[in-house]
Amino acid sequence: MAGNSFGKLFKLTTFGESHGPAIGGIIDGCPAGITLDLDKIQADLNKRKPGQSAIVTQRKEPDTVVFLSGIFEGVTTGTPIGFTIENANQKSNDYSHIKNTFRPSHADYTYSEKYGVRDYRGGGRSSARETACRVVGGAIAKQVIRDIEIVAFTASVGELKLDKEAAELDFSLIESNPVRCPDPETATKMETYIREIRSQGDTVGGTVKCIIKNVPKGLGEPVFDKLHASLGQAMLSINAVKGFEIGSGFEGTKLKGSQHNDLFNQDGSTKTNLSGGIQGGISNGMDIYFNVAFKPVATIMQKQETINSEGELVEMQGKGRHDPCVVPRAIPIVEAMAALVLADFWLQNKVSKI
Amino acid sequence: MAGNSFGKLFKLTTFGESHGPAIGGIIDGCPAGITLDLDKIQADLNKRKPGQSAIVTQRKEPDTVVFLSGIFEGVTTGTPIGFTIENANQKSNDYSHIKNTFRPSHADYTYSEKYGVRDYRGGGRSSARETACRVVGGAIAKQVIRDIEIVAFTASVGELKLDKEAAELDFSLIESNPVRCPDPETATKMETYIREIRSQGDTVGGTVKCIIKNVPKGLGEPVFDKLHASLGQAMLSINAVKGFEIGSGFEGTKLKGSQHNDLFNQDGSTKTNLSGGIQGGISNGMDIYFNVAFKPVATIMQKQETINSEGELVEMQGKGRHDPCVVPRAIPIVEAMAALVLADFWLQNKVSKI
Amino acid sequence: MAGNSFGKLFKLTTFGESHGPAIGGIIDGCPAGITLDLDKIQADLNKRKPGQSAIVTQRKEPDTVVFLSGIFEGVTTGTPIGFTIENANQKSNDYSHIKNTFRPSHADYTYSEKYGVRDYRGGGRSSARETACRVVGGAIAKQVIRDIEIVAFTASVGELKLDKEAAELDFSLIESNPVRCPDPETATKMETYIREIRSQGDTVGGTVKCIIKNVPKGLGEPVFDKLHASLGQAMLSINAVKGFEIGSGFEGTKLKGSQHNDLFNQDGSTKTNLSGGIQGGISNGMDIYFNVAFKPVATIMQKQETINSEGELVEMQGKGRHDPCVVPRAIPIVEAMAALVLADFWLQNKVSKI
Amino acid sequence: MAGNSFGKLFKLTTFGESHGPAIGGIIDGCPAGITLDLDKIQADLNKRKPGQSAIVTQRKEPDTVVFLSGIFEGVTTGTPIGFTIENANQKSNDYSHIKNTFRPSHADYTYSEKYGVRDYRGGGRSSARETACRVVGGAIAKQVIRDIEIVAFTASVGELKLDKEAAELDFSLIESNPVRCPDPETATKMETYIREIRSQGDTVGGTVKCIIKNVPKGLGEPVFDKLHASLGQAMLSINAVKGFEIGSGFEGTKLKGSQHNDLFNQDGSTKTNLSGGIQGGISNGMDIYFNVAFKPVATIMQKQETINSEGELVEMQGKGRHDPCVVPRAIPIVEAMAALVLADFWLQNKVSKI
Asked: Which of A122, C272, D80, D321 has the fewest CB atoms inside 10 Å of its own CB, making it the most exposed?
């Protein structure tokens, strides 16, 4: 109820603050009988890990996941999978300056107003560190829905946009650069720009595109749990996300029905795919694709005026180790959340007909 | 589980197909002791009703809601509120031509694939008629959170965009024109365009902007149930919606943190509001605002090639009574879904601290 | 959340007060593709109906269920099944005497304390009339789990106990007498006793035994949702129920492990069945059996002292039409709740392994 | 969904097998602002701990709970409380003899049938070790509902019954003996009997009585979530429980309404309390009391015939460290589950009226 669980049949519940002893979670509802590749889970975590390149936060965390239950001799048993990830490198003193100060456009103020108390160290529960647990959950979800392929990549950084169609892109190049953009030329520009932004003590936003292939037909539940509605909730629940669009999205609103309709081939596939692989909230077997908008990170290394818990105006300057642009590290999180949604609906669909 | 419920504490469950005897729903979790203004509920329904103007579907439905329980002597009793809305004017024969034919970009094909069976009459459960029940639920939700003001309006139709800031608009003009755009000049252009589109037997998309005022601080639950994530799910669950953005949205991704951060005033309000009234998933007391993208309606009155359930290519032409542009009638639905989200989180927030 | 829903995958939500225009409900999660026998549903309702024999309440209700959605050409479509049952014979004036008076051992006082307001007519939502909706839900659930056989019968009325083992009983005789006891001799004694109790203006309690055959192995979810725990919740949620025991129950607590253990046959069945068909919360394929304790109905036709809403002592005498013993009419309700539990776990079990 | 969570607003989710590295859980929905007494939590755990007296299992476990999140400077923050309890003393080799053998009346067979795979060491997830996590959750729940007093004690062991009314008992004596019976004389008899049973390599069942005082009026939700129905589910979900009765329970079924009704005092309290503090599923402010039936533990130290996974008849003899009677160690578990139910309904009741 308090919003720390995601999914209905394949359910991830997470806990943990940025600067406590550990974060972790429980995956309940993972079917029995799946031989898990634990290395793949750690590999996904490593993609989200801080300190992996020069353009991300330099906090050093091994981010090693430890599984405590639910797996026996490498195979899921149908019982809940508990796991923890140690917080190895909490420099709590980095945060003493914000103990009584509300950082602009952060969750400091709203947590205080809501709960009357907060763990201010490193943003506490509102820290993006929490997303490591989502990556663990998503990595297991991927092994439930093995045939489905989920690929996300950086589609824009600030005004710099990847201007190529998905069909023109070579996804094997995504991991070839720290920006995670499959077009090397654009990636270089983006990287240069992020370095520049960082040197200014500033941050910048961007967008992630996600493409999902080999989706079985029939995933998604009408009415309120349409597949894209749940994907939207999943993405919008990621820190710093401000927008989500599926298929033709906002651009599609400018079209006429006669332009927008996806006409059928005889095998049930469609000639175009402005629908983004979902019709009436249910997957139709075509590729699902969507865009996710990330705002610029609120913590900047410039002086800003703000207020403290006494309502006094104070000046503050960001300290700590932060990302100049979250988008590159958000890629595995977007993929993980997509996997959680799909695994859940894949299970739900098993009970939709007799 | 099967996706026909919305909300956790204030929960709406709906039922009903477009051409069955009635649609309806149950609102469970409405607190006791609220004196309901039933006329306001019907008034909201009337705003969604077909046949209300020349630019919407001409299906005639009285759309009169009948309450069966949960209200005694005008006051909510804390027990579930059951209600029905008769389907008065089902012209089922209008749909015999689609019995075995899958309309392009409709839910016909995906429902058939998912369930193996479907009520093809008028789209059955996938019909936007289902949203009438959401309007009833939302209208009651509004009376739970009386002080919160929710206003939605048409922000674009096709390429025609309302190019004014919220502060420049007079919301009392929204209902002054059939398009539900608060700027009369733009409204006239939009109406003319919709008429033109209709005369072509075509349809067009558009966007809705929603602004929510007087939101208490503290609504929204970290981590997965961020306020804007639930608003996103709510909006994306409405028929024909393809995108959602909150606050600065997709445009905000182009900004730097130093431009995007909302600096505080001493009273905790912010000088700017690019956050859209939500930080860390929790309302901060500033106005919430978001945009919703609606694709063009799939049913067009032009000939289209499609397939039937035997996988044969067939030609079809839309019949029945459809909207050339759903946006005007979507306004009360957007408001209703927003109200459902806010009432739910308002209740949830009552148990967030001791 | 407010407790008007039952089940997770096969979910029944009910609404309705005793003296409103109608009661009803929504079944969400019924799989598509089931050809429903609607007559069987009505037949179950008729078994619960008031006025069916001389030893039950003489309120006359046709209790005809009307289905509004989710069934197309006799087959479930996977969409929610909405239904209503009209309240035909509400004699609301029968209840004006309790408007401000709290009947002893009734829910009048607690509803008032909880909600601050109540629909006092006929007990409102706390009336056993609500269970008619459970019978509808259960009757559909039975058609989901067709091979499972659920039989309930009267096992005791007051001190009069059916002293035969299940194996000695002919269940086809249950409906041969108004008490619903499969042993005609005992049934006659019970009926005579109930008539005597009624002539005294009094009421009496009793117990129901339920036996479930052909249960597939594997139903039930550890840890909190053990099959018998959910059966227990289901039964204890029926009006007037004060106890539940599965298998050897309270008597079994007196035994030693060496006496109580059910030894295996080679095929996995057990030589004895003190476990009641469930081990570790999961069905083992043996018969499930349990007992349910019903207290005497609180409404008696004798004078009792009580208090009113002003806290004054007043004298009252039951009016209206009530059952001297609820047990005979509770039989179909016990069966219905058992069916709801089993259908839900049958669906849940479909996703327990890959 | 998979049954490892308990509660709606105050929700405990647990994980862990008997012989994995650790068990643990997450409490989600604990309100912010509660100063937790961590010693009390550990004290409750110590009451459940193995090895605490001569009449319980001699497995040695420190059972030290480690909190990982949700508590900052001793105060709950409203974020999820994650915790682990190390499995220090897993003698996994004790269980190699049951790897392929199904112990009679255990969950071995049903887990295998359900999941196709199981962690056989020490019963895996079906081990009562899992209940340690419930005790942690319950101990925190008690600190949410501080004014409510929950007391459980041993009411019978085999045929030996505590034959005194609650009013005659001195609850401060419960912890004065290893049986946890408040009547020293009866306790001695029970202890002697348990020692005798143990010396036979046998086990015995018993019952626990629980009394809850200072319950606010209004807890419990009609219809399906009646307070006693949820208490029943809670108790029946504890390992080895076979029965539950509230108030007058099974004995009450023998009474007439004129005997059973609880007449009011002018202050709304009742002269008698056969209802057990709950009417219509809602607490009325009187003491809640109920009995819980525990079967004899299935693991006996005698030879038994059973089958293995090949369906062969084999002989087996219990090894490992087991309880001759679970009842004494079940006392803190019963209290914990009662606390979880009450805290949940206490929160739920906060949103029942405006």
From this structure: C272
- Which of C10, C11, C17 is most worth mutating to test chain B (most B CB atoms within 10 A of its CB)? C17
Q: What is the CATH number of domain A5-349?
A: 3.60.150.10
Tally: H helices and E strands in chain C: 8, 17
Cα distances (Å, whole numbers) of residue A92 to A56, A97, B202, D70: 20, 10, 61, 16
CA-closest candidate to residue A143, choices A305, A343, A278, A302? A343
The answer to whether the beta carbons of residues A164 and A136 sit under 8 Å apart is: no
What tens digit of pLDDT does each residue of A265-280 get?
999 999 999 999 999 9
C353 contacts on A by Cβ (under 8 Å) = 31-33, 78
Mean pLDDT of chain B: 94
Task: Please report the ipTM that was assigned to this predicted complex.
Answer: 0.97
| Residue C325 contacts residue C204 (beta carbons within 8 Å) | yes
Ranges of H-type helices in chain C: 38-48, 108-115, 131-144, 184-199, 227-236, 249-252, 257-260, 327-349
Distance to chain D for B223, nearest Cα, Å: 9
Chains touching B (at least 3 CB pairs under 8 A) are: A, C, D
* Per-residue pLDDT tens over the stretch B39-60: 999 999 999 988 788 777 777 7
As a whole number of Å, the CA-based R_g of chain C is: 21
Instruction: Kindly list the residues from chain C whose CB atom is less than 8 angstroms away from the CB atom of residue B5.
Output: 13, 28
For C111-130, write each residue's pLDDT tens digit. 999 999 888 887 889 998 99
DSSP secondary structure string, A39-91? HHHHHHHHHH-TTSSTTS--------EEE-SSEETTEE-SS-EEEEEE-----
Q: Which of D34, D144, D352 sits opposite B31 (nearest CB)?
A: D352
The residues spanned by each domain of chain D are 5-349
Residue B80's identity, in one-letter code, is P
Q: What distance in Å separates residue D291's CA from the closest CA in chain A? A: 30
